[in-house]
Amino acid sequence: MIEWIKTLFSKTETVQNTDYTKAEVQEQQKNNIESVSKKFLIVGLGNIGAEYVNTRHNIGFKVLDHLARKESIPFETVKLGALAEYKFKGRTFLLLKPNTYMNLSGKAVKYWMDKENIPLENIFVITDDLNLSFGTIRIKPKGSDGGHNGLKNINFVLNTNQYTRFRFGISDEFKKGQQIDYVLGEWDDIEKEKLPERLETASEIIKNFGTAGLENTMTTYNGK
């Protein structure tokens, strides 16, 4: 938080060296802060490659793909991932799908946070969760990685776990020793039938987070 505020204030140094009044400088600083506070980095975790597209572990990518398709916004190949820009009710949502593979997701998150001057509280990470039944939603403002390698790397690179994560339940219906095959396996027929409604809800959650705030989003959607 301190670093991005310093960046914003530094942008007004040239203004302060002119004949602008103190009030005008303060107004510029306020506008800079408000501009950044309305920008959000929405990170969907997953693995790149056709073989992973429909796997449970790629639910983060799938949620962002659903929203982008619904709103007719394209993804562009950028440094460390694919990025789409979605504007809604005066907010800007940067939808990021890291191309670093799951275990190095933090590198992409850190790069785009810094590049776009996005504060930590405006980061929203979407990931799968074995400990929740299929489609169950759990939004939290912080927490451990829960054994998830993507979150583990983000925590390490950012040196904090104080960012919002949206856990999408994929359940744990697998036999002992088959966790990897299950997570990297494709949805079964029942899950495929229910998935569209869950993806639509996930899209609404992203928009609600940016417009109504974290507390409202948790109250409205957790457990649903």
Question: What does this protein structure show overall?
Answer:
The protein has 224 residues and is α/β, with parallel strands linked by helices. It has a single domain, classed as Peptidyl-tRNA hydrolase (Rossmann fold, 3-Layer(aba) Sandwich). The protein contains nine helices and seven strands. The chain has helices at residues 2-10, 13-16, 22-37, 59-70, 105-115, 149-158, 179-183, 189-212, 214-221, and strands at 39-44, 76-78, 81-88, 91-98, 123-129, 137-140, 164-169. The protein has a seven-stranded mixed sheet, with helices on both faces. A hairpin with a 2-residue loop joins β2 (76-78) and β3 (81-88). α5 (105-115) crosses α6. The radius of gyration is 19 Å and the shape is globular. It starts with a helix and ends with a helix. Mean pLDDT is 88; it is low at 11-17 and 29-33.
Give descriptors for this structure.
single chain, 224 residues, alpha/beta, Rossmann fold, seven-stranded mixed beta sheet, globular
Taking all Cα atoms into account, the compactness measure Rg is 19 Å
Count of helix runs: 9
- Using the 3D structure, state the CATH architecture: 3-Layer(aba) Sandwich
Return the CATH topology: Rossmann fold
Let me know the average pLDDT.
88
Oligomer: single chain
Structural class: alpha/beta
Number of domains: 1
The largest sheet is: 7 strands, mixed
Question: What's the arrangement of strands in the largest beta sheet?
Answer: 2-3-4-1-5-7-6
Which spans of ≥5 residues are poorly predicted at pLDDT below 50?
11-17, 29-33
How many strands appear in the DSSP assignment? 7
CATH C-level = Alpha Beta
